Please model this.
Amino acid sequence: MLRPWNLLLKKRVNIDLDGPRYLQIAHGLIHEIERGRLLPGEYLPSSRDLAETLKVNRKTIVTAYEELIAQGWLASVGTRGTRVSTSLPEGDATNAPHLSAKSTGVSAETEYPFLPAPDRLLAIPAGKWRKLDEGVADGRLFPADLLARAYRKAAEGASRANALHYRDPRGSPRLRQEIASMLRRQRGLMVGAENICITRGSQMGVFLTARILIRPGDAVLVERLTYEPAVAAFRACGAKIVTVGLDEDGVDVADVERACRKHRVRAIFVTPHHQFPTTVSMRPERRLRLLELARQFAFAIIEDDYDHEFHFGAQPLLPMASYAPARVIYAGSMSKLLVPALRIGYIAAAPKVVDALAYQISLIDGMGNTVTEEAAAELLESGEVRRHVRKTAQIYARRRDAFARNLDSEMHRLIDYRLPDGGLAFWLQFKDMAALDRLEQRAPEIGLSFASSQSYAAEEGTERGLRIGFASLTEEEAKEVLQALRRCAEP
Ligand SMILES: Cc1ncc(COP(=O)(O)O)c(C=O)c1O
Model:
């Protein structure tokens, strides 16, 4: 007669799954032992009987039994057969789910609590047709052969120097040196390698900064329209998010002062160069007032300068970190200079802050990725990065203008926008929210994906808009995309 677990085992062993069948049977048996449905000392059916029940070759059962005997789950009792090892503790049959078909199929459910991913993920899955980004460089323009050569040189160099083992969590000394020199020469930051900590993307830099600044309940200020992944990182570290106002001159500093009087503010997250998502630059008087408030209330300014290198009008303002290094933690990224897939970002800050960040890195992955960092250093040192940026900046300037023309011809009835002086995206404000709703509802039906208009709002009730990157689209692609967006938005 078939024992209940015998039947259950039959259900558990899904012969359609990949992997050796004997292992699936072994796992099924372990599961039954853990659940207490097969008790210590209990005999198993003969390999022939079980093979017949499960419709598998007898040898498969013999191999599964042998494996479990070797692991100590089962014991062979000579000619009497095979039984569950008597040295195992009894499983908890009382806690086992009822022996119903529903509870015993192969289940993806866990039996322990954990923090699940939110319903709306931060990374946008690619659409079947086209994924619109929020302003990334065109990866197709990046010469892959340059990258391959840099990797080869980096790997060979690091191997020769016996540098392919564990090392300083602050990152490759050469890359830190190169980045410090770039920041000194091009952005006016008075930094050396000791001020630089390399991270896997600036997102990691922001997360680690949150880790070292925030104690549960501390407040972090963000503008009412802002960069969702940063907000999510602050929340994940226990911060209370407090939103402050924003207009065409940047953050509302009076609001910042009010928030500081009301909350224990540890930090403010800002993107002064090109505000994310609206693209406006923070005016100098706002910057100075913000620095004053940071000194008065002893909070850190996290300055995310994510797309510094692309500006199409006048010379950009210097980063706040260049004139207030003791109050600013500066987050930078190579995602736009090179490509996001390299995952190279950095924090520029006081050496003690860099040490604190590096300690966090040693908790996460021990250190960074030596070969990738050396390859990036190679590209910076050889001048290839500058050449690439100079070349692509011209292409992006043309694409920006063409995008604006297409916006004028395709979407002028639907949206308002201002031409961005820099950065790689437009901020589209809809005249009628119903049009935006239609657009967001219909776009996925034609395989078009982009960040939700809600993703920029730090709190409910904030106005919505779309941030659409222009740099990664050729002029023809941009036209096609904007025509599609218009069709989706029209009644
Ligand atoms: C506001 C902002 N910060 C940072 C980044 C860069 O992130 P990462 O260096 O992690 O690729 C982006 C990328 O688009 C961004 O929009």
